[in-house]
């Protein structure tokens, strides 16, 4: 029960905060909290110029790539890392 309480608390806190995305034009990047009503992080590559920002989901059309989790429009690999999986397993075992 304690684990579920912690998960619910974390989900509630993350929902209270806005979506965070990378905002980039070319190689210059910052992070930003997306203003309402934007709910997606975006990446678009036009002739080698990569632009990243926030956008409303109804405007996500090809060739714009959209995602909806914090900093999901990073340039790095988006798959699960082994270290992340090991870390979450260790955290889970502590709470059980």
From TrEMBL:
Keywords: Signal. Residues 1-18 form the signal peptide. SUPFAM superfamilies: Snake toxin-like. Residues 19-85 form the UPAR/Ly6 domain. The keyword Signal applies. It comes from the Eukaryota. InterPro entries: LY6_UPA_recep-like (IPR016054), Snake_toxin-like_sf (IPR045860). This is (spotted green pufferfish) hypothetical protein. It comes from Tetraodon nigroviridis.
């Amino acid at each position: 029960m304690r684990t579920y309480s912690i998960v619910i608390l974390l989900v509630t806190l993350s929902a209270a905060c806005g979506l965070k995305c990378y905002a980039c034009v070319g190689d210059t990047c910052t992070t930003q909290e997306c203003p309402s009503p934007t709910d997606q992080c975006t990446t678009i590559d036009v002739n080698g110029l990569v632009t990243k920002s926030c956008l409303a989901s109804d405007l996500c059309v090809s060739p714009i790539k959209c995602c909806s989790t914090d900093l999901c429009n990073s340039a790095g690999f988006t798959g699960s890392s082994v270290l992340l999986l090991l870390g979450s397993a260790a955290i889970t075992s502590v709470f059980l």
